[in-house]
Write a structure and sequence with these properties.
This protein is mainly β. The chain is built from 2 helices and 29 strands. The protein has 2 domains: 49 residues; 318 residues, YVTN repeat-like/Quinoprotein amine dehydrogenase (Methylamine Dehydrogenase, Chain H), CATH 2.130.10. The chain is globular.
């Protein structure tokens, strides 16, 4: 009777209703957190679809031979984050709240994990293995929309695993192309997967959902990273100098331009707003140049800085404010140490946490 009298009062009914709503919200968010360990994308679908951004907004720079990455908001300050579940992560892609990684290019003391794609639900702090069919060390991974593809070069064949459901299930290994050339880069542009090579090959491409792969036309040699920007695909191929190539049909045909770069190491590419950036190594200097993102690219210098002995570039990423390039420089005895080069309106080689092990920064990603 006392409970009935209590609920008969309008103010008390509103208070009780508010308490019930709060309890329901708590239960719902708890269920989503619990389900994230099993299937984060399905859990988020309860709230209206797969989340494409987590609001994390940090660069991560992964080592090629140790279980750690360096993390930064892009201001030049980097923090070391050790992770568990994999000996190294050498390529990584974000889809929804999930990171997918591979370590087929891991160097000693890290050990590559054959037939394995790794998955992280906590921004790379812990990784769990997703075992796929026999195929060997997986080297590159990319995503288009809600699909994920992971690729490798095994025994002269470019092979790939493909998932149409945000990485929940991967199909059996499919041979894409026969070449002895190592993979260089693997990206998505306008729902099309594109990969290139560090030898005389073209750009291999396939629309998602993947049914067939095709090879672009053009003249090629060892290639830089690929960049998709403003309905263009850009790469540079190296034959004494880096020659610029642009595709205006999403990778089907690449045509050489008059722009060339004399440098060493991998040429890294990025875009911020209406600007495209290219970074390369000249002697001991890391160089950054920019161009307006138009049909014809006219390059101008942003700056250069000494980045140590024997510098090399391996990967780059951008946010709305800066471009970050990861690589290595040596200590004078030929031993590589992680190196990070950064710039937009000026350039710098960022200081890093003390005590980092030897090795290279092989992958940079901006995690949203």
């Amino acid at each position: 009777m006392e409970e009935t009298k209590f609920l008969n009062h309008p103010a008390n009914r509103l208070s009780a209703l508010a308490s019930i709503c709060a309890l329901c919200f708590t239960l719902l968010t708890s269920c989503i957190k619990l389900d994230a360990n099993l299937n984060s994308n399905n859990a988020l679908a309860l709230l209206g679809g797969v989340l494409t951004s987590t609001g994390y907004n940090k660069f991560q720079a992964y080592s090629n031979n140790n279980p750690f990455f360096l993390e930064s908001s892009g201001d030049g300050t980097w923090t070391r984050v050790n992770f568990t579940g994999a000996s190294a992560i050498t390529d990584v892609v974000q889809i929804g709240q999930t990171l997918y990684g591979v370590n087929g290019l891991a160097a000693a003391p890290a050990i590559p994990a054959p037939n394995t794609i790794f998955k992280s639900l906590d921004h790379g702090r812990t990784w769990s293995a997703v075992t796929v069919s026999t195929g060997g060390n997986i080297e590159k991974i990319a995503s288009c929309g809600t699909s994920v593809a992971a690729a490798r070069n095994g025994g002269g064949n470019i092979n790939a695993y493909y998932s149409a459901d945000t990485g929940l299930n991967f199909g059996s290994l499919v041979t894409l192309y026969t070449t002895g050339a190592p993979l260089r880069d693997f990206i998505c542009s306008n729902n099309r997967y594109l990969m290139n090579f560090s030898a005389s090959e073209g750009v291999l491409f396939a629309d998602s959902p993947i049914t067939a792969w095709n090879l672009s036309t053009g003249s090629f040699a060892a290639a830089s990273n690929l960049l998709a920007s403003n309905n263009k695909i850009i790469q540079y191929y190296s034959s004494a100098t880096y020659t610029e190539q642009i595709s205006t049909n999403n990778g089907q045909t690449l045509s050489s331009t008059s722009n060339s770069v004399t440098g060493t190491g991998l040429l890294a590419l990025g875009s911020i707003g209406t600007k495209i950036f290219r970074s390369y190594i000249s002697g001991a200097n890391c160089v950054l140049e920019s161009a307006n993102d138009s049909a014809t690219l006219s390059w101008s210098s942003v700056g250069s800085v000494n980045c140590g002995l024997g510098p090399q570039f391996f990967s780059s990423a951008t946010n709305s404010n800066t471009m970050v390039v990861g690589g290595s420089a040596n200590n004078g005895a030929g031993t590589p140490f992680p190196m990070i080069f950064r710039g937009r309106t000026n350039v710098s080689v960022d200081s890093q946490p003390a005590g980092l092990p030897t090795g290279s920064i092989i992958k940079v990603i901006f995690v949203q």
